[in-house]
Design brief:
The protein contains 7 helices and 7 strands, in the order αβββαβααββαβαα. It has helices at residues 6-13, 57-72, 81-93, 99-111, 147-157, 169-181, 186-200; strands spanning 16-19, 32-39, 42-49, 77-79, 116-121, 137-141, 160-163. The protein has a 7-stranded mixed beta sheet with strand order 1-2-3-4-5-6-7, sandwiched between helices. The two termini are 28 Å apart.
Length: 202
């Protein structure tokens, strides 16, 4: 089973990507790539974990600032599955060293008033659990149908899981999903994420 590499997300899913680095005090960070991305007709903030890296405190602060920028610019977020999984697992485990940073990043993602979309491979569908709570939609690449999994998730938290449309291609599928989710009221997006968290804890 394979999670899409950071470079694949940037190269395959974007038409243009401008990386935004850390501040002068903290530098660019080691485990995260994030910045502004253009995907077909959508303008988004992209956040992805570098291959085989776990986010450190400085990286989480960088992500937190990017979430603030996304909200200020009214931009949705395209996040890598690994990043969302690391943030949620770090929040649940309450890593003492980075507890404040995990808490802040997790809560900002949950409260982001614009859509959050993730792309993954079909081979990973049956292993997904916590990382699905934050993402409003999961787009699935590869052979096999996400239909059965989709129904299960919709019942538990009104989440859209869909195969990448072969006719549209990856970029246009992502763009179309963002525009679909932008029709959902901001308060409803946040409520759905919180509902998924409650379902997962019952």
């Amino acid at each position: 089973m394979r999670i899409l590499r950071c470079s694949e997300i940037i190269e395959d899913a974007t038409d243009r990507f401008i990386e935004l680095y850390g501040d002068r005090k903290e530098g660019p960070g080691k485990s995260i790539r994030c910045g502004m991305a253009w995907i077909a007709d959508a303008k988004v903030v992209l956040m992805a974990t570098r291959d085989q890296h776990k986010p450190e405190a400085a990286d989480l602060r960088r992500v937190s600032r990017l979430i603030d920028l996304a909200e200020h610019l009214k931009r949705p977020i395209l996040a890598s599955l690994q990043l969302l999984s690391d943030v949620e697992n770090g929040f649940c485990l309450q890593d003492i060293r980075n507890r404040k940073e995990f808490d802040t990043t997790f809560l900002k993602l949950i409260s982001h008033p614009f859509p959050i979309v993730t792309v993954t491979d079909h081979s990973l569908l049956q292993t997904l659990d916590t990382s699905l709570r934050i993402s409003d939609s999961l787009l699935v690449r590869g052979n096999g149908s996400a239909a059965d999994f989709d129904q299960n998730c919709v019942k538990k938290g009104q989440q859209i899981i869909r195969n990448v449309d072969d006719d549209l291609g990856l970029k246009s599928s992502i763009s179309a999903m963002f525009f679909q989710l932008l029709t959902v009221q901001k308060d409803d997006l946040v409520k759905r994420r919180k509902d998924r968290l409650r379902h997962a804890n019952t």
